[in-house]
Design a protein that fits this description.
mainly alpha; 6 helices; single chain; globular; two-stranded antiparallel ribbon; two-stranded antiparallel sheet; 55% helix
């Protein structure tokens, strides 16, 4: 499908990079501005969660804002506190596990010690994905929401 879509495409200018990766948590709500995606928190690409977290954090924020009077500053501040709490609950383990994986991956001895374990026990990857929160359903399914 991609071949058909990109057939005849040409490069306009030079390639652009995505910029440096800056894993961590930033302000969720400040000066009347709510943040989502990498603006609120960036996970190391070792667990490939950036786009997913951006979409899911948008849903978390929207679910808070639809509950509030958007003209009442105290209500918005409360929505911001709830959003931060739900965001940390949803993504905190992903940030921590990605940092650990990235840290271990950059050390040849650690990576070399882990690889035989993963080869011998491949289900450990499923356990790691669960520990990282990759299987956690943030947004309810369409059927459940109806």
């Amino acid at each position: 499908a991609l071949r058909d879509v990109l057939d005849g495409a040409t490069l306009a200018g030079s390639w652009l990079g995505a910029g440096p990766v800056r894993p961590g948590i930033r302000a969720h709500h400040k000066d009347g501005i709510f943040r989502v995606g990498n603006a609120v928190g960036e996970v190391h690409p070792a667990i490939a969660e950036g786009i997913s977290m951006a979409m899911q954090s948008s849903w978390l924020l929207a679910s808070e804002l639809t509950r509030e009077n958007l003209r009442d500053q105290s209500a918005l501040d409360e929505a911001g506190r709830r959003y931060r709490a739900s965001w940390l609950s949803a993504f905190g383990s992903r940030l921590r596990s990605a940092a650990l994986i990235a840290h271990l991956s950059m050390r040849p001895k650690a990576a070399g010690a882990i690889l035989p374990i993963v080869r011998r026990f491949p289900k450990i990857l499923t356990w790691g994905a669960t520990l990282a929160g990759k299987n956690m359903q943030i947004v309810p399914s369409v059927a459940a929401a109806s």
